[in-house]
Structures are given as C-alpha cells and as structure tokens.
Design brief:
Radius of gyration of chain A: 12 Å
Shape of chain A: globular
Order of helices and strands of chain B: EEHHEHEHEHEHEHEHHEHEHHEHHEH
CATH class of chain A: Alpha Beta
Largest sheet of chain A: 5 strands, mixed
Strand order of the largest sheet of chain A: 2-1-5-3-4
Order of helices and strands of chain A: EEHHEEE
Oligomer: heterodimer
Number of helices of chain A: 2
Number of domains of chain A: 1
CATH topology of the largest domain in chain B: Rossmann fold
Number of strands of chain A: 5
Structural class of chain B: alpha/beta
CATH superfamily of chain A: Beta-grasp domain
Largest sheet of chain B: 6 strands, mixed
Strand content of chain A: 15-25%
Shape of chain B: globular
Number of helices of chain B: 15
Structural class of chain A: alpha+beta
Distance between the termini of chain B: 75 Å
Number of strands of chain B: 12
Largest interface: A-B, 23 and 53 residues
Strand order of the largest sheet of chain B: 3-4-12-9-10-11
Distance between the termini of chain A: 39 Å
CATH topology of chain A: Ubiquitin-like (UB roll)
Strand content of chain B: 5-15%
Chain lengths: 92, 418
C-alpha cells in the first residue's frame, strides 16, 4: 500500500475532487512535495512564502501531529496516512 | 435589512458573508466576525444598553445575532467582585475578580459563547449541535441545547473528571468518549464537521461562538463605570478569550462608550500545558505544541489555534504571560475561596496564581486596577482539591464530646503557633 494523503473537503477543488491522494514518498516533506507537484494550485495553501508549512494548517502522520515527530523530515512508509487538517482549536 | 456583520479572514481580509465555516477558503486562515461600526453607532447607545436586564443579551447589537433572534433565557451578567481581602493578601489595591464561576446556566463562561453559537445554529437551520470539549463547553452546549430543542452530541477525552461528564449527561446530550487527549478529540471533530451536517459550535460555528466571549469584556468595562482597567489576567486554553476581551475593549472605544487607554493583557497557563506562555517568555511568534500534563484539564490544549493571536496581543499590549505548577494551582484555589468566598475551578486557580506571581514579580503594578478572570465554578473540578481536605474523625452527638473536640482543636492550634 502506498502512502495516502487525506485531503479535507476545502482542499478538494485543487485535487479534482479526490479525497485521498496516494504517493510513494519517504518523508512528510516528500509527500507534500509530490502533492504540490501533482496539483500546483494547492501549493500556496500548503506552504507560505518562506517554504514553511502554513501556520494554520496542521499535518498529522497516522493521527500524530508531525511537530511531535520531528516535523517534515519525519519518515513515512507504505500504509501510512498523512492528514491535512485546517487548524481549529476548541473551547475549554 | 442586511446584516451589520459578516465573516472576514483574519489574514487576507477577504469577506465571506455569513455561513457555517471557520476558515478562509482562499488562504485557510481563521475567519472572524467583522462589524459595520458606523451603522451600529446609529442603532444602539450606552443608555439603551443600560436600560436592559443585566445579562449578555444587553449587548445584542454587538453580537452576530440574526434579526429574528429572541433570547431564550438570561446568560452571563456575572458579578465583578472588588476583591479587597485577596488584594490585601497579595499586597495589592484595586483588584477585581470577574466571577463567571456563577455564570448561568452551566456555571462557566462557556455559556456566553454557546449563546451566540446556538443563535447561529438556528439561523443556519442545524438540528443537531455539538462540540469537542474538556468539559465546560460540553456542559454549556448540553444545557442550552435542551432549553432550545436541539439534539446534542459532544465529544470528550475519555478520562475527563466525572463531575464534568455528569454535568453534560444530565441534560440528555449524547456523549462520545474518545481515547485520546483534547487535541486528538478536536482534530477528530474537525473531520466530523467536514463529513456531517452538524453545528459543532467550536468548529464550523467557531467565528459566531467566539464572539460571545466579548460580553465578559463588555461587562467588565460597564461594571467599572464604563472605563477600562489597567491590567487583565486571563486564562488561556485555545487562546481565544484573551483576544476577544481585547476586541470588546477596542469596540467600546470605537463606539465612544469608554475613554481610550492602553490595557495590558496577561495570559495565564499551567506549566504542564504552556505553549503560549512559553512562546511569550521565549520571545517566539510561533508556539511549539505540547502534550498536556496538568490538573487544569480545562486549559489542556497543547495546540492552541488562537495561540499566534494571543502571543501578538500580549506582546503588543506590553503585558506578559506566566504559568504555574499544579501545586500552586491548588493553593490559589484555596486562597481565593478563603479570602473572597469564591470557589473557582482549576482554570480560575491558574489565573489567580499567575496574577499573584505577576504582582510579586512586579510585572503588574500593585497600585493599578487589575481584573482577574475566573472562568468556571470549583464544583466542576472538585477532584483537584479533594486531597487537601482529608475526612476528619466524627464525634458523638453529645455536648461533652464537642467540648472535648474544641479543647483539642484549640490546644493543637496553640501548639502549632508556638
């Protein structure tokens, strides 16, 4: 099984409606680069001008925030799920 | 008549009308409600507000309420307590506690945000409402959903304090317990809101929900005699409340209802979950997320989406942020109860303890007018303080037994004081 990137509905207009995109990357950075290469319109929504992941976009690897896993350099393997989720905090 | 408010992106400024969404579809930054203040000025005055019952709905024109809105019951309108005993204890003057521990109906400031959220839910014709919550928000959603005839489904971390769970279940809401921390529950809710047509108050209704917090700030200003304090100390979970109190103050200045003056904002967190206070103290613009580990469950958000805005506000206002340990939280809860007769939950203990720290360190001047925000009732987090009060031995129902007991207590006290 490839690495699967799950696309939130707000982003699907950039992926021709696809809710999931498969890729064969070895890291989170590689997965995001494959996504933005294949669908250039999504690129500016994933990274800001400095190349960092946008402040209000959270990226999860198998439901763990990648910031706890070392960030974009974190390795991914076949069968992993990468989730893109707009950042929304809740109340208390 | 068209709305006097609509959604606006906080980053790119694009306008989105009114709809159940919380992020800009152009840049995926958060949306906020933006008002036409020139038209609002003609619609409402300070005198008109003052003539209404004292609850949050007196500020209706400043909230995102539809034309057809009719309040179901009183919410907010809580005391601003002149805390003379606590102030003396801390060596301060002009100290006030804004006491949302007695907010109606469910005893936390979350009642305010749910008020505006459910008004939006009704407007957008949702029949099921819900939230991700560490407890207080679930309580408020369940209570108000019952009042207004919505079905309610709330999502909570599975290990939440039992008082908070019961305080939600009793109103008839469906509770879904998640094996995870609050951030994981929240992420799941973002996916659920994406999939189902439900009004999740702090997800797809978030911009409408968060505006309710402003009423905590409006009331403070009105209760001080339509003037702003010098300092405000606010607990931070997601980081929204502190920014909304600031927005409330700015709006009152724009409307000409209070004199313009600088207010310093101070954020309070528990050391066991301090992404925002850590960023402020280290001079960072972006916080680093944390895995929460604190008894202050209601502030246990390790990935606060309003964190960047809270950091910016604190810094630009000349304020600061601090955090305290769980032991200090419990001590602060006791001090507030013993001096002012107010029993606040762990979040209130965090805020009071941080306020004490900031005064002691000289970051808050002892002479200035300082408001400390108590956001929830102590009955919700009784577990956190239970160990402080071990069960005492019972005595027989006889006068002699009581006299002996009293003698024993006085002897013990004398021995302790020697």
């Amino acid at each position: 099984m490839p690495v699967t990137i799950e696309i939130p509905s707000a982003f699907r207009r950039f992926t021709d409606g696809a809710p999931k995109v498969d890729c064969s990357a070895g890291s989170i950075a590689g997965a995001l680069n494959e996504l933005t290469s294949r669908f250039p319109a999504i690129a500016r929504h994933v990274r800001d001008d400095s190349g960092q992941i946008r402040q209000f976009l959270n990226v999860y690897l198998n439901e763990e925030d990648i910031r706890f896993l070392g960030g974009e350099s974190c390795a991914v393997k076949d069968g992993d799920r990468v989730l893109l989720v707009p950042s929304i905090a809740g109340g208390i | 008549m068209s709305d006097l408010y609509e959604l606006r992106c906080r980053e790119c400024g694009k306008l989105w009308g009114n709809r159940p969404t919380s992020f800009c579809e152009d840049c995926f930054s958060p949306l906020e409600i933006s008002y036409d203040y020139d038209r609002l000025k003609k619609r409402v005055s300070r005198e008109k507000v003052a003539s209404r019952p004292f609850d949050m709905w007196r500020y209706a024109e400043l909230l995102p309420l539809p034309e057809t809105f009719s309040a179901r019951g009183a919410i907010g309108g809580t005391p601003l307590v002149a805390a003379g005993n606590l102030a003396a204890h801390w060596g301060a003057k002009n100290l006030f506690l804004k006491n949302d521990a007695v907010c109606f109906p469910s005893l936390s400031f979350k009642d305010r945000v749910v008020g505006t959220a459910l008004a939006a839910a009704r407007r957008f014709e949702f029949t099921t409402v819900g939230c991700s919550s560490t407890g207080n928000l679930a309580n408020a959603v369940a209570a108000q959903a019952a009042q207004q005839g919505f079905d309610a489904c709330v999502f909570i971390p599975a290990d939440l304090e039992s008082a908070k769970v019961i305080n939600t279940a009793v109103y008839g809401a469906r509770i879904v317990r998640i094996n995870g921390n609050y951030d994981q529950v929240n992420r799941l809710c973002a996916q659920i809101a994406d999939r189902y047509k439900w009004g999740l108050v702090n997800v797809n209704l978030r911009p409408y929900y968060s505006e309710g917090s402003k009423t905590h700030g409006y009331e403070i200003a009105e209760q001080l005699g339509w003037r702003l304090p010098d300092n405000v100390v606010v607990p931070m979970a997601g980081g929204s409340l502190i920014t909304k109190i600031a927005k409330a103050f700015r709006e009152l200045i724009t409307l000409g209802w209070v004199e313009e003056k600088p207010v310093r904002f101070f954020g309070a967190q528990a050391t066991g979950c301090s992404p925002i206070s850590s960023a402020v103290k280290q001079g960072l613009a972006r916080f680093e997320p944390q895995k929460p580990n604190t008894i202050a469950r209601s502030l246990a958000i390790g990935n606060p989406a309003d964190g960047p805005y809270a950091i910016k506000l604190i810094r630009e206002s000349g304020g600061w942020a601090e955090d305290i340990s769980d032991r200090e939280i419990v001590a602060a809860i006791k001090v507030v109860a013993e001096t002012e007769g107010i029993f606040t939950e762990t979040a209130g203990g965090v805020t009071a303890g941080v306020a004490q720290k900031l005064i002691r360190e000289g970051r808050i001047s002892r002479e200035e007018t300082t408001v400390v925000c108590m956001t929830g009732n102590g009955l919700k987090t009784v577990d956190a303080v239970t160990a402080e009060f071990p069960v005492t031995e019972a005595i027989a129902p006889r006068l002699e037994a009581f006299e002996a007991y009293l003698d024993n207590q006085l002897t013990h006290a004398a021995g302790t004081n020697r």
